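REQUEST FORM: STRUCTURE PREDICTION
Request ID: SP-0412
Submitted by: Lab K.M.
Chain count: 1
Length (residues): 113
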Amino acid sequence: MADKDTTMQEYLEMDTNLAFYIALYNRYGQVGNGYAEICGGFIEGVYQWAQHHIRYTTETGNSKYHGWIITFEEGSMGTQEGMVYIPNWVMEIKPKNWVHAKNMFNKYLVRHC
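STATUS: Completed
RESULT:
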């Protein structure tokens, strides 16, 4: 269970990266793709979408940003790689709870074109 000293990074690792996958789904998923309906709900749909489309992720960063290079399964997203990043100051925040962490991460995560 998280406490007041839990960092954004630790929240992202909770629940098998659910907050991370939700943010990626919001950036790369297609509206009405059917995953939520087929899988029984939004959370299950996000996990299934991630399993079907993400081959692996590589963390990267610099002095300003924390980022991830996402390698998609061949042909599944129309592109082989994508990149998302978030300012380091957001990663250093200690959110109130998991929902706060998820919402902040989703708000500040940027998809690189």
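NOTES: The first strand starts at residue 54 and ends at 61.
Reviewed by: T.R.
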